[in-house]
Amino acid sequence: MKKTLTLTVLLTMTFSVSATADAGRLVKNVEKVYRTIRDYRARFTQTVEYTALGKSQTDTGVVFFKKPGRMRWEYDPPKSQVIVINSKKVWFYMPTDRQVLVEDARRAFSSKTPVSLLSGASRLRKYFDIKKTNRFQDKAHGITLQLIPKEPIKQVKEIYIAVDENSYIITDTFVVDHFDNVTHIVLSDIKINIGLPDELFTFTPPQGVEIIRPSEVLNR
Hints:
Helix content: 10-25%
Strand content: 35-45%
Mean pLDDT: 85
Strand order of the largest sheet: 7-8-9-10-11-1-2-3-4-5-6-12
Number of helices: 4
Largest sheet: 12 strands, mixed
Structural class: alpha+beta
Low-confidence stretches: 1-21
Order of helices and strands: HEEEEEEHHEEEEEEH
Number of strands: 12
Shape: globular
CATH class: Mainly Beta
CATH superfamily: Lipoprotein localisation LolA/LolB/LppX
């Protein structure tokens, strides 16, 4: 029994070291590729699984990224929401409510948050310990990696990404919150270094839309 237990421990340790080494080689290539990417555009499919309710919601749209750290998410109808992020501001436009939330970017996000993950993919090892995993492999479009934050991230329990083993492009992200709800984003039709204009990453609210600044409301 003791020999069997020892063998099991050794095999587990060997697998763990091998998985970590494989992940390390894969992530180096991911970082290398993303260092060459100045901007890109992709279609996205976002599915949120609400575990406690046994329900899910799927939305689609187009996402744009441009260094340094700029993003724009445009959701397809009927949601039609727009999220724009640059180094100074975050705009969250909800046309059905005739409202736009405006927040300071530093207050809203850090470089380690999941929403910043894709634009900061050239520095994954700076913020995460990374290992290969089989979790979500059945839903992923590449090799699945678990990203373990070196510092806690608010409202986030676990983070996973999937990487295409030929192009080293991130194809999926999975974010698990503390209620075990899972947000899965799939990227497709990715166009790299197409020269996106800077104007895409700012937002002018339409006339008549209510502008809400949450930080100012909380500080009153």
